[in-house]
């Protein structure tokens, strides 16, 4: 991998991490909702109003996409808060998993967090999603605690930069 414009590109040059553009709205929304439906069996898009207008909701935050050629195959957002950043809306299309895309997205989000002088990152995931929990632990995040969430127990992780 090489660093390109502060974001990573794989050696083949077809996979890249880029900043979200409004023209990607529909693909971004579909990818996240499809991943939730895959995980839960179905999804109510009205429970995810932030996905209706990514630019309006997350315009002050860092929103990245993974592109394979020009197809959106992964998403990730770093919500910037006064005391910490929070990674949300991580998703990789099922046909593109196990290629390091999620790791590239998180690495890019962390790199950009450091550039914004964000010193602490938090992430939460459903406590039953053992693969997601193992992924964050592999990247150096430390389990903090579990807490009740809207859809069951949530596992919270943190990382000091």
Q: How would you sum up this structure in a few lines?
A:
By secondary structure, this protein is of the alpha+beta class. Helices cover 28% and strands 37% of the residues.
The average pLDDT value, as a whole number, equals 89
Provide the spatial order of strands within the biggest beta sheet.
3-4-5-6-7-9-8
How many strand elements?
A: 9
Q: Major sheet: size, sense and barrel closure?
A: 7 strands, mixed
So what's the overall shape? globular
N- to C-terminal separation? Answer: 22 Å
Provide a count of the helices.
4
Which stretches are poorly predicted, pLDDT < 50 over at least 5 residues?
A: 1-6
Strand content: 35-45%
Helix-strand pattern, N to C?
Answer: EEEHHEEEHEHEE
Tell me the structural class: alpha+beta
- Helical fraction equals 25-40%
Radius of gyration: 15 Å
Walk me through the structure.
The chain has 161 residues and is α+β, with helices and mostly antiparallel strands. It contains four helices and nine strands; from the N terminus they run E-E-E-H-H-E-E-E-H-E-H-E-E. The strands form two sheets. The chain has a seven-stranded mixed sheet with strand order 3-4-5-6-7-9-8. Strands 1-2 form a two-stranded antiparallel sheet. Strand 6, helix 3 and strand 7 form a beta-alpha-beta unit. The N terminus is likely disordered.
Keywords:
single chain; 161 residues; alpha+beta; seven-stranded mixed beta sheet; two-stranded antiparallel sheet; globular
Q: Topology, pairings included?
A:
Blueprint: E1 2-4, E2 7-9, E3 15-19, H1 25-40, H2 54-58, E4 62-68, E5 71-80, E6 85-92, H3 101-115, E7 120-126, H4 130-138, E8 142-149, E9 152-160
Parallel strand pairs: 6-7
Antiparallel strand pairs: 1-2, 3-4, 4-5, 5-6, 7-9, 8-9
